Amino acid sequence: MIILIRHGKAVDVNEWNGPDNDRPLTEEGKERTKKLAKGSRFLREKLKNPLLYTSPYLRAYQTAAIFGDIWKLEVVKNPLFEPGWDGSGLSLDDKKKDIIIVGHMPDLKEALFSLTGGQATIEFQPPSLAAISFSGDKPRLVAYLTWKGVEI
User: Fold this and answer.
1) Residue 68 φ then ψ, to 5°
2) CB 120 within 8 Å of CB 141
3) Which residues of 76-88 are buried (b: 16+ CB within 10 A; e: fewer)?
4) Which helix (H) or strand (E) holds 111?
5) Is 116 helix (H, G, I), strand (E, B) or coil?
6) Helix (H) or strand (E) segment spanning residue 27
7) Vertex 87: Cα angle to 134 and 46 (nearest 5)
């Protein structure tokens, strides 16, 4: 299974004076991310030795750190998942593992579309997650969760 997570609500780009990669989550973004991580623990229980990767951008890393704390996982920064990632760069072997990726929009939308063979598209809200199963004859979207709860 691959789980794609959009980072929590970040400080507005128009209100931020520093580099974009240093833009942090808002307090509301942190709280909503905690709610999503706690509410989606049932997914964590289905995973075997999952790897938690994140874009090195601060807002994504903060989101991953919250999930890592609640789901009891180590967070690994990977520049592959910086803005611009489209789902490429994952091998067939990666799809046989349980992987969690924290990233950005519109990248996650494009990655979901690519990873499901064009069968799924979602406008990821901050924060939200989509779970893709690769068991069976073709990949499929099996869950979409927001901080408010299940959407599909």
Assistant:
1) -60, -40
2) yes
3) eebeebbeebebe
4) helix 107-115
5) coil
6) helix 27-39
7) 35
Domains and their CATH numbers in the chain = 2-150 (3.40.50.1240)
Give the Cα separation of 105 and 118 in Å (integer). 17
- Tens-place pLDDT, residues 85-119: 988 888 767 677 899 999 999 999 999 999 999 99
pLDDT tens profile 72-91: 999 999 999 999 998 888 87
Residue 19 Ramachandran class (φ > 0 left, ψ -120 to 50 alpha, else beta): beta
Which two tokens mark 25?
């989550």
Q: Which residue has the tokens 């973004």?
A: 29
Which residues, in sequence order, are CB contacts of 117 under 8 Å at separation 6+? 138, 139
Which amino acid would we find at residue 117?
G
* Token pair belonging to 67: 């999930």
